[in-house]
Design goal:
The chain is built from 6 helices and 5 strands, in the order ββαβααββααα. The N and C termini lie far apart (about 45 Å).
Length: about 200
Protein backbone atom coordinates (compact mmCIF):
# COMPACT_ATOMS: atom_id res chain seq x y z
CA UNK A 1 0.00 0.00 0.00
CA UNK A 2 1.35 3.39 -1.01
CA UNK A 3 2.06 5.99 1.65
CA UNK A 4 0.09 9.27 1.70
CA UNK A 5 3.13 11.37 2.73
CA UNK A 6 6.74 11.30 3.85
CA UNK A 7 6.28 14.08 6.42
CA UNK A 8 2.73 14.91 7.49
CA UNK A 9 3.77 18.44 8.49
CA UNK A 10 4.94 19.38 5.00
CA UNK A 11 3.09 20.36 1.84
CA UNK A 12 4.72 17.74 -0.33
CA UNK A 13 4.81 17.71 -4.12
CA UNK A 14 5.53 14.35 -5.67
CA UNK A 15 7.59 14.58 -8.88
CA UNK A 16 8.16 12.06 -11.64
CA UNK A 17 8.89 11.89 -15.36
CA UNK A 18 7.99 9.79 -18.41
CA UNK A 19 9.90 9.07 -21.59
CA UNK A 20 13.50 8.83 -20.44
CA UNK A 21 14.13 5.62 -22.37
CA UNK A 22 12.50 6.71 -25.63
CA UNK A 23 14.29 7.31 -28.90
CA UNK A 24 11.88 10.03 -29.99
CA UNK A 25 9.67 12.73 -28.55
CA UNK A 26 9.93 14.95 -25.49
CA UNK A 27 10.44 13.89 -21.90
CA UNK A 28 7.48 14.89 -19.74
CA UNK A 29 7.55 15.62 -16.00
CA UNK A 30 4.79 16.24 -13.49
CA UNK A 31 4.45 17.58 -9.96
CA UNK A 32 1.41 16.81 -7.81
CA UNK A 33 0.32 17.94 -4.34
CA UNK A 34 -2.37 15.62 -2.98
CA UNK A 35 -4.54 16.05 0.10
CA UNK A 36 -3.22 14.03 3.05
CA UNK A 37 -6.36 11.88 3.02
CA UNK A 38 -6.35 11.10 -0.71
CA UNK A 39 -6.87 7.43 -1.55
CA UNK A 40 -7.72 5.42 -4.64
CA UNK A 41 -7.94 1.64 -4.96
CA UNK A 42 -5.57 1.24 -7.91
CA UNK A 43 -3.32 4.29 -7.92
CA UNK A 44 0.20 2.90 -8.30
CA UNK A 45 3.38 3.38 -10.29
CA UNK A 46 2.10 4.15 -13.81
CA UNK A 47 4.19 1.31 -15.24
CA UNK A 48 2.14 -1.15 -13.15
CA UNK A 49 -1.18 0.14 -14.53
CA UNK A 50 -2.96 -0.51 -17.79
CA UNK A 51 -3.37 2.33 -20.24
CA UNK A 52 -7.10 2.41 -19.48
CA UNK A 53 -6.42 2.66 -15.74
CA UNK A 54 -4.02 5.56 -16.28
CA UNK A 55 -6.53 7.37 -18.49
CA UNK A 56 -9.25 6.82 -15.89
CA UNK A 57 -7.03 8.07 -13.06
CA UNK A 58 -5.86 11.28 -14.71
CA UNK A 59 -9.05 13.37 -14.25
CA UNK A 60 -9.50 11.91 -10.75
CA UNK A 61 -6.00 13.05 -9.76
CA UNK A 62 -6.44 16.45 -11.37
CA UNK A 63 -9.76 17.02 -9.60
CA UNK A 64 -8.55 15.88 -6.20
CA UNK A 65 -5.07 17.45 -6.20
CA UNK A 66 -4.44 20.65 -4.27
CA UNK A 67 -2.19 21.56 -7.21
CA UNK A 68 -0.70 19.80 -10.22
CA UNK A 69 1.41 20.72 -13.23
CA UNK A 70 3.02 19.07 -16.24
CA UNK A 71 6.05 20.22 -18.23
CA UNK A 72 7.99 18.90 -21.21
CA UNK A 73 11.45 19.21 -22.74
CA UNK A 74 11.91 18.78 -26.46
CA UNK A 75 14.46 16.45 -28.08
CA UNK A 76 16.81 19.37 -28.78
CA UNK A 77 16.85 20.21 -25.05
CA UNK A 78 17.41 16.54 -24.18
CA UNK A 79 20.38 16.43 -26.58
CA UNK A 80 21.83 19.58 -25.03
CA UNK A 81 21.37 18.66 -21.35
CA UNK A 82 21.41 14.81 -21.55
CA UNK A 83 18.35 12.83 -20.57
CA UNK A 84 18.99 12.73 -16.81
CA UNK A 85 19.33 16.48 -16.41
CA UNK A 86 16.56 17.14 -18.92
CA UNK A 87 14.29 15.03 -16.70
CA UNK A 88 15.38 17.02 -13.65
CA UNK A 89 14.81 20.31 -15.48
CA UNK A 90 11.35 19.05 -16.44
CA UNK A 91 10.54 18.47 -12.77
CA UNK A 92 11.80 21.97 -11.92
CA UNK A 93 9.54 23.45 -14.59
CA UNK A 94 6.55 21.49 -13.32
CA UNK A 95 7.19 22.67 -9.73
CA UNK A 96 7.44 26.29 -10.94
CA UNK A 97 4.02 25.96 -12.58
CA UNK A 98 2.27 24.76 -9.39
CA UNK A 99 -0.39 27.19 -8.17
CA UNK A 100 0.30 26.16 -4.56
CA UNK A 101 3.90 26.42 -3.36
CA UNK A 102 5.12 23.15 -1.83
CA UNK A 103 7.35 23.12 1.24
CA UNK A 104 9.00 19.83 0.28
CA UNK A 105 9.59 17.78 -2.87
CA UNK A 106 9.48 13.99 -3.17
CA UNK A 107 11.53 12.98 -6.19
CA UNK A 108 11.30 9.62 -7.91
CA UNK A 109 14.82 8.23 -8.37
CA UNK A 110 18.21 8.92 -6.85
CA UNK A 111 19.44 12.04 -8.68
CA UNK A 112 18.15 15.59 -8.52
CA UNK A 113 19.41 19.16 -8.65
CA UNK A 114 18.16 21.12 -5.63
CA UNK A 115 15.22 23.36 -6.37
CA UNK A 116 15.78 26.88 -5.00
CA UNK A 117 14.20 27.33 -1.58
CA UNK A 118 12.48 23.94 -1.37
CA UNK A 119 14.15 20.92 0.26
CA UNK A 120 13.79 17.56 -1.46
CA UNK A 121 13.98 13.85 -0.78
CA UNK A 122 15.04 11.40 -3.49
CA UNK A 123 13.05 8.18 -3.34
CA UNK A 124 14.27 5.13 -5.25
CA UNK A 125 11.17 3.46 -6.73
CA UNK A 126 9.21 6.30 -5.16
CA UNK A 127 6.37 5.87 -7.65
CA UNK A 128 5.63 2.52 -6.00
CA UNK A 129 5.99 3.95 -2.46
CA UNK A 130 4.22 7.34 -2.29
CA UNK A 131 0.83 8.37 -3.63
CA UNK A 132 1.95 11.82 -4.76
CA UNK A 133 4.82 10.42 -6.84
CA UNK A 134 2.54 7.73 -8.30
CA UNK A 135 0.05 10.47 -9.22
CA UNK A 136 2.83 12.46 -10.90
CA UNK A 137 3.90 9.36 -12.82
CA UNK A 138 0.34 8.89 -14.10
CA UNK A 139 0.07 12.51 -15.27
CA UNK A 140 3.50 12.53 -16.92
CA UNK A 141 2.81 9.23 -18.70
CA UNK A 142 -0.70 10.07 -19.92
CA UNK A 143 0.24 13.53 -21.17
CA UNK A 144 3.26 12.11 -22.96
CA UNK A 145 1.28 9.26 -24.51
CA UNK A 146 -1.31 11.76 -25.74
CA UNK A 147 1.43 13.91 -27.26
CA UNK A 148 3.05 10.94 -29.01
CA UNK A 149 -0.34 9.97 -30.43
CA UNK A 150 -0.59 13.44 -31.99
CA UNK A 151 2.93 13.11 -33.42
CA UNK A 152 2.06 9.73 -34.92
CA UNK A 153 -0.40 11.48 -37.25
CA UNK A 154 2.48 13.54 -38.68
CA UNK A 155 4.91 10.58 -38.75
CA UNK A 156 2.67 7.51 -39.23
CA UNK A 157 5.41 5.14 -40.38
CA UNK A 158 7.06 4.87 -36.92
CA UNK A 159 4.12 3.39 -35.02
CA UNK A 160 4.29 5.95 -32.22
CA UNK A 161 0.60 5.48 -31.46
CA UNK A 162 1.65 2.01 -30.24
CA UNK A 163 5.30 2.25 -29.10
CA UNK A 164 5.20 5.91 -27.92
CA UNK A 165 8.77 6.39 -29.15
CA UNK A 166 10.33 3.50 -27.22
CA UNK A 167 12.94 1.31 -28.98
CA UNK A 168 10.71 -1.51 -30.17
CA UNK A 169 11.64 -3.75 -33.12
CA UNK A 170 9.00 -2.02 -35.24
CA UNK A 171 10.28 1.46 -34.36
CA UNK A 172 13.88 0.54 -35.14
CA UNK A 173 12.88 -1.15 -38.40
CA UNK A 174 11.10 2.08 -39.38
CA UNK A 175 14.22 4.10 -38.53
CA UNK A 176 16.30 1.81 -40.76
CA UNK A 177 13.84 2.22 -43.61
CA UNK A 178 12.85 5.88 -43.30
CA UNK A 179 15.69 7.45 -41.33
CA UNK A 180 15.32 9.77 -38.35
CA UNK A 181 12.87 12.65 -37.90
CA UNK A 182 13.35 15.97 -36.10
CA UNK A 183 11.55 14.30 -33.17
CA UNK A 184 14.31 11.71 -32.73
CA UNK A 185 16.97 12.33 -30.11
CA UNK A 186 20.32 12.84 -31.80
CA UNK A 187 22.30 12.02 -28.68
CA UNK A 188 20.68 8.57 -28.41
CA UNK A 189 21.80 5.37 -30.14
CA UNK A 190 18.84 4.97 -32.45
CA UNK A 191 19.93 1.58 -33.79
CA UNK A 192 21.44 -1.31 -31.82
CA UNK A 193 25.17 -1.51 -31.14
CA UNK A 194 27.02 -3.02 -34.07
CA UNK A 195 24.84 -1.34 -36.67
CA UNK A 196 25.93 1.80 -38.51
CA UNK A 197 24.46 4.79 -36.72
CA UNK A 198 22.46 7.43 -38.55
CA UNK A 199 23.88 10.77 -39.51
CA UNK A 200 21.57 13.75 -39.02
Amino acid sequence: MLLPFFNKNETEAGCDEAGRGCLAGPVFAAAVILPKDFAHPFLNDSKQLTENQRVELRPIIEAAALAWAVAQLEPTEIDRLNILWASVEGMHRAVRKLELAPTSLLIDGNRFKPYPGIPHQCMVKGDARFLSIAAASVLAKTYRDEYMLSLSIKYPQYGWEQNKGYPTKFHRAAIRQHGATPEHRRSFRLLPAGEPQLSF
